[in-house]
């Protein structure tokens, strides 16, 4: 199957019917014909092809509208699998997912830093080969590989143009992996892949325009409009971490001053805590860090906040306010239906979200904009790898 599956899907009517089953299944042939305005014989013959190909299957009998009970159709989720890679900057995570985003394998391996482009590619190949060896019996059902990584990615050519945290440029991921494994490969920026994954399998389901914001050691976002990722002309759409919030603020890794991520990302939260402790503020953090300020991280601030530490709660709340300012700018620019917040800092949950929501409610222009649907990610630490899988699925199911 493999490459052929994609060719097979190119027919417009097949895609329309397949998506109907994916979104509405269990669904009967008669209902598909009614919804799509295709003739019943056309639906029947395409359904037969889709069943023969293994993409869909017949399920339980539906309710009868008088007469014989119709046979219902659903996606054959274990008919095919996709490999998803979350590549760096600290480790490589790899998953094997079915067509419904069910994760059948998850493993992770630390990167030995510093790494060269060749070493990174070699390691990605070895992880993929390891998974293929483990799932030999399913090998024919694996239809492609999705790769998500930080930095700027040329999605057309599947090249990592710039991966700042690894100090690497121009890694020909797609070409290398396609040659080695003879499978279609899609490469995408991690925040953008996450956004697509949220729409397919997470908190973005059912919304027509979604911005997924990843708040970790930096801040990035992916924009999905009508099911499609928006990249911009030079692949940098969504780089909201470098939105200027305070021109007199701290210098950012990008060279500019007062970027959003210097105020709301994990390292900024840790910095703020260190500063407050250095001037003698009382906090549970002193004990948790063993009195060593250098041991304070965003995660530790979160831990202290959960234990009721007021200073830590205040710091996370104020990070939420800054994030809310950035997101208000984003709402005024794009007016999305839903915003999803994920990444390590999002683990702070409601403490962070309260600051975000109250800021948007205070600053956004209209009543409805003030009530923009803001949610936390539901995909956890597999969000990036699941996003990588959805790169392939969105192509497979695309109309
Ligand atoms: Zn910046």
Automatic annotation (TrEMBL):
Q: Is Transcription regulation set as a keyword in this record? A: no
Fetch the InterPro entries from UniProt: ArsR-like_HTH, ATPase_NBD, ROK, ROK_cs, WH-like_DNA-bd_sf, WH_DNA-bd_sf
Q: Which CDD domains match?
A: ASKHA_ATPase_ROK_BsXylR-like, HTH_ARSR
Tree of life domain: Bacteria
- Gene Ontology biological-process annotations: D-xylose metabolic process
GO MF annotation terms: DNA binding; kinase activity
Record keywords:
Carbohydrate metabolism, DNA-binding, Kinase, Transferase, Xylose metabolism
**Would the keyword Transferase be found if you checked this record's keyword annotation?**
yes
Its job? Transcriptional repressor of xylose-utilizing enzymes.
Q: Which family does it belong to?
A: Belongs to the ROK (NagC/XylR) family.
**PANTHER family, per the entry:** BIFUNCTIONAL UDP-N-ACETYLGLUCOSAMINE 2-EPIMERASE_N-ACETYLMANNOSAMINE KINASE, ROK (REPRESSOR, ORF, KINASE) FAMILY
What's the protein here called?
Answer: ROK family protein (Putative glucokinase)
Species annotation: Fictibacillus solisalsi
